[in-house]
Amino acid sequence: MRRCTKLQKLSVQKKSEIFKALGHPTRLQIVEKLADGEQCVCHLLEMFDVEMSTLSRHLSVLKNAEIVIDERRGKNIFYRLRCFCILDTIECMEKVLAER
User: Fold this and answer.
1) CA–CA distance, 84 with 36 (Å, rounded to integer)
2) Tell me, what DSSP letter sits at residue 74?
3) Sequence-separated (6 or more) residues with CB below 8 Å from residue 69
4) How far is CA 8 from CA 11, 64, 85, in A?
5) In order of start, what are the domains of the chain with their CATH numbers?
6) Phi/psi of residue 94, each to 5°?
7) β-bridge mates for residue 80, sequence order
8) pLDDT (tens digit, 0 to 9) for every residue of the chain, 100 residues total?
9) Residue 68: in which H helix or E strand, if any?
10) Which of 27, 63, 67, 75 is the most exposed, fewest CB within 10 Å of its CB?
């Protein structure tokens, strides 16, 4: 059995963080909304029935996992997907679920 290198372990850890970030229904919905294009945090707040602090926490998790990036424009913060390939993974899951 071959031992994992330090780089391989880091890679597995990072992948695990990405899946953990997608593991909450609200965060998954945020990613799906961002598939349509960038959104102001004010619009995301209107889409989800959560407090601003809760939405900020979810966005922070997605940002730390490098799934989304943000950009401040004046008083507003806009979010967009950084990792578009996540959408392929979500589509794959949807196909598997549809086949059940």
Assistant:
1) 11
2) T
3) 63, 79, 80, 82
4) 5, 20, 20
5) 7-99 (1.10.10.10)
6) -65, -40
7) 69
8) 567 676 676 688 888 999 999 999 999 999 999 999 999 999 999 998 899 999 999 999 999 999 999 999 999 999 999 988 999 999 999 999 999 8
9) strand 68-73
10) 75
